[in-house]
Amino acid sequence: MQRLPNYRDISFEQFCREKTNWGRVRQAWIPQTWWTHDSSNRIIVDAIIRMEELPHALWDLFGIRTKLGRLNTTSGPTDEELHTKETLAIVREHFAADLEQFGYDPNSGLIIPGVKLVSRSYEESHNTV
Question: Can you tell me the distance from the alpha carbon of 97 to that of 30, in angstroms, rounded to the nearest whole number?
Answer without folding.
Answer: 11
